[in-house]
Amino acid sequence: MLLPGAEEGKLLSLHRLWHARVRQRADAENRSRAPLWSAIAACAATRRSVVVGVDAPGKTNAINNPRVLTDSTLRWELTPLARLAAALAASGRLKQAATVAGRLSGSLQLLGRLPEARVVLDSVLVDPQAAQAAVGDSNFASLLNSLAMIQHAQGDLPEARASLEWAITIQQKNFASDHPYFATTYSNLAAIQQAQGDLPGARASLERAIAIQQKHFAPDHPDFATAYSNLAVIQRDQGDLPGARASLERAIAIDQKHSPRTTRPSQPHTPTSR
Which domain, by its residues, includes 2? Predict the structure, then answer.
């Protein structure tokens, strides 16, 4: 079904005959279109779990396969899906394009392929109003969240902040103020504000995220370890050392409930931002 389209037999595109047949069936049978594109989109998620790894409790965005950054045979395989997302968007199939792009961009980001990840999302967001109408407010806000994280990783902090603030505006119109979506968005916003040097804003955003999480999770949920570690860094940079110590001790206590016991001294916890 895939056509070798480059050196070393790398598969870069759907074979033209299969591609034409798939498009014909999708156009002729409207009922089969959504499952078809959803199945294609799921390929990206599957490759993330196999190549990149499944997130462990209390940890996010961990790459557990050392070959992933060095073996060229693992770096090209998502290219057909990236091209497919752009082609779907260009043909007006924004809902299907967004499904592929949303799942694919996270995998590309974890593989260090930030420019490709951004191109995939930008192809869907060329006409933001059309994209929002096609995918709905919730999915559109998720796309903006994904875009913001890539912009952040590329050092484009003003654009990243604008994307997240736009996502928050959309979420505020459609969800209760304590909806779990806001916890993720405010955590991401805090990381960007911290990188911009806006420590008061970052602290306020992160404390708001924690307050929302407290309404939905047990107090020893692994996500709180990350949140309190990140809060400790901000408090330290603000000169609030007692607060930073209290937050870090709370993070350690949560970590100890979820980490396997060992006879060796534990390694210092390194705060990471979502």
Answer: 1-135
